[in-house]
Amino acid sequence: MGGGRRRAAENGDDAELELDAQLVEQCLRGESQAWEELVRRHTRRVFNLSYRFTSNRQEAEDLSQDVFMRVYRTLGSYRATSGQFTTWLTSVTRNLLIDHYRRTRKDRLTSSLDDENTNMQVEQKESNARRPDDLALASELSSQVQGALQKLSPELREAVILRDLQGLDYAEIQQVLSVPEGTVKSRINRGRIELARLLEQIGVRPE
Length: 207
Prior knowledge:
Elements: H1 2-28, H2 32-54, H3 57-74, H4 85-104, H5 116-123, H6 132-150, H7 154-165, H8 170-177, H9 181-201
């Protein structure tokens, strides 16, 4: 039974990859509906990555728009034979975020965190069945983790975000960051250790 579920999941993943490839081809032929569908399918991924990196909702929304503008201009450079569209999209997003960080780092102060509703949306929390005190605790923990993430160096932060929050595997992260797999694993490990240390300093410990 477990094997059947695994094959079904793999088939579903293959179907998603094939759909992305088809949409890209249609976009390159100038079909506007295909572009709208491609954006719809991947807006949440791009926004969440942007938000995790900036901790600012408005910045994340603006950067998401910039990402899709860049994707639109460079879509012809994507090759399905070189990897998944989502990996290519994540690479484009990451490069734009790094450019943004370099432009703004001199002026960047500690960003204020968004309100509870924003945290709930980004974390995709299902709130209907939860008590108000549970929601408040979840929001506080989310804010603490987000604040700790901002204290990591950009290279450690992006490695942790891509692995632990975006769910990319090592090979995909290697492709996005253009560094050896050993470097990817080292950054993830160092980032996790530093994140745990920062959270422990403010009294947040893993159960």
